[in-house]
Amino acid sequence: MAGIVLSTLIFPFWNFIREDVYEEVDILANDNGVCYVETQDNIPKTIENCNLLKGDKTTIKYGHGLAWATIVEP
Question: What is the pTM of this model?
């Protein structure tokens, strides 16, 4: 009985943990330090504190289904 109760309480928690996705992308625009990119999941991503220029290539990390990303430093 306790196992059933615990499984119903714990299972939804795992839905909030998203797998990190790494992808090489082109910067589409930089608007005062906020870069915009397109990703394979078709959800446009924003990158805060970005100093790259339009057309630069970089690798980003984002959570599946999220609309923000971070630049992966080499």
Answer: 0.74
